[in-house]
From TrEMBL:
Taxonomy of the source species: Bacteria, Bacillati, Actinomycetota, Actinomycetes, Kitasatosporales
Signal sequence, start to end: none
Source organism: Streptomyces malaysiensis subsp. samsunensis
UniProt cross-references to Gene3D superfamilies, sorted A to Z: Carboxypeptidase-like, regulatory domain, Lipid/polyisoprenoid-binding, YceI-like
Protein name: YceI family protein
UniProt xrefs under InterPro entries: CarboxyPept-like_regulatory, Lipid/polyisoprenoid-bd_YceI, TTHA0802/YceI-like_sf
Length: 304
C-alpha cells in the first residue's frame, strides 16, 4: 500500500500519538511510530521497512522517518515485521498486527547505539605528517573540480578523560598550497586569495566535541584564515586506534570534512566567463584525513 500523508495535530511529545488524525482507505489499517535517538530526541532519517510475515515475506512499505522522527504507512489487515535501521545504530525489529480500521497512537521506539570503536586513551596525540593529508576541492568553471592539498602543517589532539572535553588544534602553512599547477598555486598564494605574505597561517582550534552516533562526532570551533575567524563544524568519523607504524607505537585515525564559503573569509576574487559562469565556485570542501601518534617519552619523532 502507498504511504499516507502524516498530519501532526499536536506537538507535545507525550500526546503525539493520540493526536494523529488521518483518513484510512476502505478495508485498511495503519501503523505509525515515533523514533528516538539513544538520548530520547526525535531521530529523522531512520529507514523503516515493513514486510509481510506470511507467504513470500513481501516488502509492502519502505521510507525514512521525517525530521520529527515520525513514520506512518497504511496497510492491509494482517501481521507484519517492521525493521528500523540507521547509521551508528543497532537495528530494531518489531512484529505488528494490523486490523481493519485500526489507527493506534504512534508507537515510540528508542534506538540503541551500535557497538562503538574503543575510544583512544586520554593524553596528547600528535599528527603524523606522512600519514596525514589536508585536502580541498573547489568548483572550476562550473563543470569540474580542482583538487589540492596543503603539504606543511602541524597539530594534534588532546584526549580528555571525558571525550566531550577533548580538543583538536591544526596550524597550516598557507604557502604550502599545492594543486599541481605552478601558475595557479602562485595565484592562490597572492593577495587575490590567501595573501600568504600577510596571513601566513590557517588555524583551527576546536572548542566542542559532540557525539552524534556510533563513530560519528561533530567538532566545532573557530577557523581563522585570511585574517578572518568563523565558527565551523567538522563532520568527523573516528576510525579506531591500533599499535603499528615506525616502532609499533599507538596511533589513532579520523576523517573530518567541512564546507567553507569563500566570502566568509573575504576571499572575494571572482572572474566570470563570457556566459556568466564563475571561474571559481563560491564554496570549498575541506577534508582532513588524520593519523595521530600517542605522545610519551618513548614516541619516535615522525620523519619530515
Amino acid at each position: 500500500m502507498p504511504l499516507a500523508l502524516l498530519r501532526r495535530m499536536r506537538t507535545k511529545r507525550p500526546d503525539r500519538g493520540s493526536g494523529l488524525r488521518m483518513p484510512l482507505p476502505v478495508g485498511a489499517g495503519a501503523f505509525s511510530c515515533e523514533v528516538l535517538d539513544p538520548v530520547g530526541q526525535a531521530l529523522g532519517g531512520v529507514e523503516v521497512t515493513v514486510t509481510e510475515t506470511r507467504g513470500a515475506a513481501r516488502t509492502v512499505a519502505r521510507a525514512t522517518t521525517d525530521p520529527h522522527g515520525l513514520f506512518l504507512a497504511t496497510l492491509e489487515p494482517g501481521q507484519y515485521t517492521v525493521l528500523l535501521t540507521g547509521s551508528g545504530l543497532q537495528p530494531k525489529r518489531l512484529t505488528i498486527d494490523i486490523a481493519h480500521g485500526q489507527c493506534e497512537p504512534a508507537r515510540r521506539v528508542q534506538m540503541d547505539p551500535s557497538q562503538q570503536l574503543e575510544l583512544p586513551p586520554p593524553g596528547t596525540w600528535l599528527f603524523d605528517p606522512p600519514h596525514t593529508a589536508i585536502r580541498f576541492i573547489a568548483r572550476h568553471v562550473g563543470m569540474a573540480n580542482v583538487h589540492g592539498r596543503f603539504t606543511r602543517f602541524r597539530g594534534g589532539i588532546h584526549i580528555a578523560e571525558r571525550m566531550e572535553d577533548s580538543r583538536v588544534e591544526v596550524v597550516i602553512d598557507a604557502s604550502s598550497i599545492n594543486t599541481g599547477n605552478n601558475t595557479r598555486d602562485a595565484h592562490l598564494r597572492s593577495a587575490d586569495f590567501l595573501d600568504v605574505d600577510n596571513f601566513p597561517e590557517i588555524h583551527f582550534a576546536s572548542n566542542r566535541f559532540i557525539w552524534r552516533s556510533g563513530p560519528k562526532w561533530t567538532l566545532q570551533g573557530p577557523l581563522t584564515m585570511h585574517g578572518v575567524s568563523r565558527s565551523v563544524s567538522l563532520d568527523t568519523t573516528y576510525l579506531g586506534a591500533v599499535n603499528g607504524g615506525y616502532e609499533q607505537e599507538l596511533r589513532c585515525a579520523a576523517l573530518a570534512t567541512a564546507e567553507l564559503h569563500r566570502e566568509d573569509y573575504t576571499l572575494n576574487w571572482r572572474n566570470m566567463l563570457a556566459r556568466g559562469i564563475a571561474v571559481v565556485g563560491p564554496t570549498v570542501k575541506l577534508e582532513l584525513d588524520i593519523q595521530a601518534m600517542y605522545r610519551n617519552h618513548d614516541t619516535p619523532t615522525p620523519p619530515e
